[in-house]
Design goal:
The structure is a single chain. By secondary structure, the protein is an alpha+beta fold. It has two domains: 30 residues, no CATH class; 108 residues, Cathepsin B, Chain A. The chain is built from six helices and seven strands; from the N terminus they run ααββαααβαββββ. It has a five-stranded antiparallel β-sheet, sandwiched between helices. It has a two-stranded antiparallel sheet with strand order 1-2. α3 crosses α4. The longest helix has 11 residues. The relative contact order is 0.14. The model has no long low-confidence stretch (mean pLDDT 85).
Length: 150
């Protein structure tokens, strides 16, 4: 069983003998999302990979960990790009076209995009699919836009 499945199934904490020990889950850099699923902290890149590829969380997390993702720290853009390429996707830089164009192309042509951005010292990644941005940053930020194709 994987680390994620252990926490999802209610593995007993070895320190506190509790089935759902929040302290130990936090130390493992995990959290529960809105759906009650146990996921990694700082996992915007995992969520983006999942939204674009259709992979389940476990597959996306494994691909990201293999590329350098560390729970609680997140991942750099080159690591996320490597994860997409490992899964057989082509990553094309289309930053010069802009977010408005990406939203239009996604809605009108069914194209998928990955956006990575910096706001101060913090970074974030999100996806654009079906003309919608999923978990976006709001301006002002500096961003890079990539088209993801199979």
């Amino acid at each position: 069983m994987s680390e994620l499945q252990d926490w999802q199934s209610g593995r007993e904490c070895e320190k506190h003998f509790l089935a759902f020990c929040m302290d130990c889950r936090d130390q493992a850099h995990m959290r529960r999302n809105e759906d009650g699923e146990v996921v990694y902290a700082s996992d915007c890149t995992v969520a983006t990979l999942r939204e674009i590829t259709g992979a389940d969380y476990e597959e996306a997390a494994e691909a990201m960990r293999a590329a350098g993702f560390r729970p609680g720290r997140g991942a750099y853009a080159h690591e996320t790009r490597a994860a997409f390429e490992t899964l057989g996707y082509k990553v094309t830089d289309v930053t010069s076209h802009g977010l408005t164009w990406a939203l239009w192309a996604s809605k009108a042509q069914g194209r998928c995009f990955w956006v990575t951005a910096k706001k101060g010292r913090k970074g974030h990644s999100w996806s654009i699919t079906d003309g919608q941005q999923h978990r976006p940053y709001h301006p002002p930020f500096r961003y890079w836009l990539f088209e993801i194709t199979a």
